[in-house]
Amino acid sequence: MMRRRRLVIPQRRRVFLGCEGESERSYGALIGRLLENRRRDVHLHVVLLQPGGGDPLALVKLAQKRIAEGERKSESRYMYRAVLFDADRLGQSPLRDAQSHPSLAPRTYN
């Protein structure tokens, strides 16, 4: 009697996308649907970051907390991590902006 080979489905790689508000979450959901049609090996985990208040640094810190919780619960790490937020609050506090991401640091030219 011949044994059937079991189909092994590899675990999908997870991508974290933290979103400031509903419009960013809707955009993330659209990206997730497009990604599902294109690549079956990746899952986009879209998370609404509330309350974030629009402050980029607060959003990044909340995203870090949600990432840690998600990785602890599922016992697998996120392959990539990103945060979507409106740029309207950028520049109000350049030091806080720089803490949220090095590319947001004020530039000095000689």
What does this structure look like?
The chain has 110 residues and is of the alpha/beta class. The protein has one domain (13-104). Helix content is 39%, strand content 19%. The chain is built from 3 helices and 3 strands, in the order E-H-E-H-E-H. A 3-stranded parallel beta sheet has the order 2-1-3, sandwiched between helices. Helix 2 (56-74) packs parallel to helix 3. The chain is elongated, with a radius of gyration of 18 Å. The model has no long low-confidence stretch (mean pLDDT 81).
What's the quick description here?
By secondary structure, this protein is an alpha/beta fold.
Which key phrases capture this entry?
single chain, 110 residues, alpha/beta, 3-stranded parallel beta sheet, 3 strands, elongated
Query: Which series of helices and strands comes N to C?
Result: EHEHEH
Radius of gyration: 18 Å
**Sequence of strands across the biggest β-sheet:** 2-1-3
**Low-confidence residue ranges:** none
How widely separated are the two ends? 78 Å
State the helix count. Answer: 3
Tell me the number of strands. 3
What's the domain count? 1
